[in-house]
Amino acid sequence: MKEKQATDLRVETVRAFSELRNNIRRYIQDRIKEQQINITYEMLEVMFHLWRRDGIKQQELSDITFRDKSSTTYLIDNLVKRKLVARADDENDRRNKLIKLTPGGMKLKERLSPLMTEMYHVLGTGISDAAMTNSIRVLKKMNKNIIKSI
Question: How far apart are CA 100 and CA 85, in angstroms?
Answer without folding.
Answer: 5
